[in-house]
């Protein structure tokens, strides 16, 4: 894939103290703006792979490059900068700061990333307006934006986490099982909003879930056991 946004090549990763590789992936590429559904059974390494894609973990060998930059070539501070510039992360537990308001949570990446602050400032009259734009894009009205995160429902927190991932239009959004706490209707509404917001931002999306029913909503489906040479025998239960 020419000019892939995300490129994995000959990646091998073992958790410290483990005698076995958790992941051994010859190649995986994601194009700019592409939406990828990553699935596989519990424990097969989906969250570990997301951490490697986002430069939170480094492989023992091989290359993981985002926007042409190999995470392994960066010192820790530069890695943190590249991550906040280029990656929006939606965690399973959302990881909002509880005493900040919804809007303050959404604006956090702009505090730490000049690139995202400038991108946000180009798009709206003020950062506040841009934060509200992404909250609105995730179906949250202005009344929610000034409420502390700990006073929001689970569904609202999840939408705030998505708006925070999207502000400043990072190249890549990764989402780790963000729909696992939702019923089917709310899951579908959330996915509709997230997919349209990623399209508007021009962000690629790598979305992890056990729930294969939502797979057709994505541009591409990737079975982790199918591409992981360390996962002998896992494919049968994927
Ligand atoms: N911090 C850690 N230290 C050591 N081993 C870990 C750590 N985190 C995960 N593992 C191990 O790595 C393997 C892959 O775990 P991971 O959480 O990536 O799987 P997963 O596919 O995301 O699972 P699930 O669908 O249940 O969330 C598991 O065997 C797990 O025990």
TrEMBL record:
Gene3D superfamilies the record matches: P-loop containing nucleotide triphosphate hydrolases
Task: Check the record and name the InterPro entries matching this protein.
Answer: AAA+_ATPase, ABC_transporter-like_ATP-bd, ABC_transpr_LolD-like, P-loop_NTPase
Question: One Gene Ontology cellular component annotation?
Answer: plasma membrane
Record keywords, A-Z: ATP-binding, Cell membrane, Membrane, Nucleotide-binding
Among Pfam families, the record links this protein to: ABC_tran
Membrane-spanning intervals of the chain: none
- GO molecular function list: ATP binding; ATP hydrolysis activity; transmembrane transporter activity
Q: Which parts of the sequence belong to the ABC transporter domain?
A: 6-234
SUPFAM superfamilies to which the protein is assigned, alphabetical? P-loop containing nucleoside triphosphate hydrolases
Q: Which domain of life is it from?
A: Bacteria
**Could you identify this protein by its name?**
ATP-binding cassette domain-containing protein
């Amino acid at each position: 894939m020419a000019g892939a946004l995300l490129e994995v090549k000959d990646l091998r990763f073992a958790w410290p103290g483990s005698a076995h590789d958790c992941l051994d992936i010859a190649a995986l590429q994601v194009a700019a703006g592409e939406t990828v559904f990553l699935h596989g059974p519990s424990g097969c390494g989906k969250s570990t792979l997301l951490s490697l894609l986002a430069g939170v973990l480094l492989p023992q060998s091989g290359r993981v490059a985002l926007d042409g930059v190999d995470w392994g070539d960066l010192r820790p501070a530069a890695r943190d900068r590249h991550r906040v510039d280029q990656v929006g992360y939606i965690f399973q537990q959302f990881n909002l700061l509880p005493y900040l308001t919804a809007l303050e949570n959404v604006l956090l990446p702009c505090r730490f990333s000049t690139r995202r602050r400038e991108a946000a400032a180009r798009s709206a009259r003020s950062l506040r307006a841009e934060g509200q734009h992404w909250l609105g894009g995730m179906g949250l009205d202005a009344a929610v934006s000034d409420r502390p995160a700990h006073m929001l429902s689970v569904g609202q927190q999840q939408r705030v986490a998505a708006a925070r991932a999207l502000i400043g239009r990072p190249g890549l959004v990764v989402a780790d099982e963000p729909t696992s706490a939702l019923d089917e209707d709310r899951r579908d509404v959330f996915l509709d909003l997230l997919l349209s917001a990623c399209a508007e931002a021009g962000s690629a999306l790598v979305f992890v879930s056990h729930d294969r029913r939502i797979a057709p909503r994505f541009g591409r489906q990737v079975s982790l056991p199918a591409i992981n040479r360390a996962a002998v025998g896992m494919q049968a239960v994927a």
